Amino acid sequence: MAVLDNILDRLAGLQGTNFTITDVKVKDDEIVWQVEHREGAEYECGSCGNKVDSYHDSRWVRIKDYPFGNKPCVWHVKRMRILCTCTNNVRVEALPFRSRHHFLTQRFVDYIEQVLCTKMFTVADVSRLFNLDYGVVYKIDHDVLFRMWQNCEIPDPIHISVDEKSFKKGHNYVTLVTDVDLKKVIWTSEGHTKESLDQFFRVLGPERCAKIQTVSKDLHKPYAYSCAEYIPQAIEVADPFHVVKKLNECMDDCRKELALGSKLQPTKRKKIFRLNWVLRYKQENMKSSHLESLSNLAKLNEPLYKAYLHKEAFYDFFDFRPSQIDKAEEFLILWIIEAFKSKLKGLQEFAEYISRNTEILLNIIKTQRSSAISEGINRKVSVIKSMAYGYKNIQYFMLKIMQRCGVLGSMWAPAS
Hints:
- This protein is an alpha/beta fold.
- It is built from 16 helices and twelve strands.
- The chain has helices at about 1-10, 105-115, 125-130, 135-150, 195-205, 205-210, 220-230, 240-260, 265-275, 290-300, 300-315, 325-340, 345-355, 360-365, 370-385, 395-405; strands at about 20-25, 30-35, 45, 50, 55-70, 70-85, 90, 160-170, 170-180, 185-190, 215, 235-240.
- A hairpin with a 4-residue loop joins strand 6 (about 70-85) and strand 7 (about 90).
- Helix 5 runs parallel beside helix 7 (about 220-230), helix 8 (about 240-260) runs antiparallel to helix 9 (about 265-275) and helix 15 (about 370-385) crosses helix 16.
- The longest helix is centred in the middle third of the chain and has 21 residues, at about 240-260.
- The chain is elongated.
């Protein structure tokens, strides 16, 4: 019998503790382990850790353990209340095998953490799998991610990409810093202000900031001010995605300008308004129906058709190689001149945008780098957000980004 008790204690992980398994009941819907104190055991205060050899009273508590096969496992533990000198009052004794915040065994919590950190299950999946309250699993997930983030060391980045991601409606953003070489997010912070990026550089420190060679980002001014202050040696590279996005917005302004300000008949104006998405397509990606609409546009409104052709010509800029940097600069100058000749306000605004940021745009050609990795990660973050139907806690949202898209992905270890 002593050998059997020893095996049960080892299965339950109770060896070396004041507790032992006294009975096991296998029911139709669960397995119940009865846990009591060993003979001559002392009782440890849950507040100060002081040990006493007498108790005030006792009560049975129910603690869930991880399942055996397809049956849930429950421990019925005889827990003592003791009179301790730390408060001169009755205190409950400490249970070394119980989780700190939940009526679960610590080994069950470790197992839940491990399952969550595989990135194959959501909180809702684990909640259903182990028949636990969603709030309990959410708290476990939040705690383990926060613990991993506290123990995480940011790698030394050489090439970084900076972008912002919407957290919820109302201009609520988080700033994401991605290591382009690792292709992982290495920092998240609340907001998209200068201070949001400053936090990253302050944590990184002057020595590691000095190692950064390139920073790919959109032309958001607060980010530019932060980079100028902390990494002035780094080459700033504009993001082609945002440049093209800006070009399409200006093209849309041209469409509205020519439709609203023209003396065309209402039916023809409607046709121009319906060309919104057609004008955003690259000609090489158009379907036959789009090409037909474009050919009709040449007859319907020639200035808008020429503006579209001028927009298409801008894409040739991205085909230049580093050895052709002079030709690329000449190309931008000629494009700006032609844009101003068109007398379309939308194109002229984009031409001014190029002239203000010519050097940063030319760095796309010089370095052959972009923030494409950040845009891909942004898409993945959108999936994370939609899977959870949004996040109320911004800290938890940032931790999930670091887990799913960043360096926290494979750092799990049981809590010591």
